[in-house]
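Running this now, will post back.
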Amino acid sequence: MTEEAATVAHIDLALVDECLERFFTVSSARAQAFGRPSEELWRVLRKASMGGKRFRPRMVLTSYTALGGQDVHAASHVAAAYELLHTALVVHDDVIDRDWSRRGRPNVAGSFRDNATTGGLPLPTAEHRGTSAAVIAGDLALAAAPRFIEASGVTGDRRSRLLDLFDDAVFASAAGEMADVDLALGVMPTVAEVLQMERAKTSVYSFEAPLQSGAVLAGAPEPVVASLGAFGREIGIAYQIVDDLLGVFGNEGSTGKTAIGDLREGKRTMLIAYAATTDCWPDLAPYLGDPDLTEERAAGLRALLVECGARDAALDHIREHTALARAELAGLPYELGARLEGLVTELVERVR
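Update: finished.
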């Protein structure tokens, strides 16, 4: 990315933050008419939306600015829609996973639970309050997100297309989340089933739809929009496999994520689905999902995942989907292709 393009992207991301800040300021003021619980709900939701990498807005703005888009008002609003959608999905995902924290801090459910226990409520009651508040907060963010597109000033067919892309992203993510729930309950899924779930749950709303939305907003021809969708699908799958690898083999100081959590949870990632087909599985299976898994035992499980070929299989899949993503760059305008090539390097290098 050129220095000028990087500056434009930086300014636009600041405008995304301004959009979100105005939204929460107005919503917090509205909440005052409904009393303290409503005010608290918006305060905690606002906090949950802060501090992220604004990755989804980056996807919107990358394709939009590289394709010549100059309407920063429209672009920042469409980008903000995807950031608020991300907040909603994360809040709901934590409820589904029964998590009370995110990155070492209380999440929405954890904040309301902790406030309730501090106020003297017994833990079961406090936990019910926490999960209830998180469901409500996620619903509020989910309902409000498409309104940013409506407030972008875009009209006609482009507005309809943007809303359709956003709706498709929500639809796919819900399907992926439900598949994730079911895959954790039934027989061990195949590698293909895990990747299909991860694509629907995360890739569509994180890569495919934001990249395509930026292109539609810029008035790009349909072949470019289609190529961006295909690129987003493949790099999104590669990104998720990288994420799963880092969840087991990553450095917590670099990733901000513990490298034992997925093993303690028994999370059914591509690594685990592959390992289940190998002779190492009987040695792995008894310890996966053990909440008391020690670091020493975890190191042994990592060694088995290497020995059985699961880590190499994951790396092969990353290379495969990265190559498919790069193949789509040939049909894109040079500036956009160059920026996306930089994105590919950024995402894949995380696992090195």
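Strands lie at 101-102, 105-106. More later if anyone needs it.
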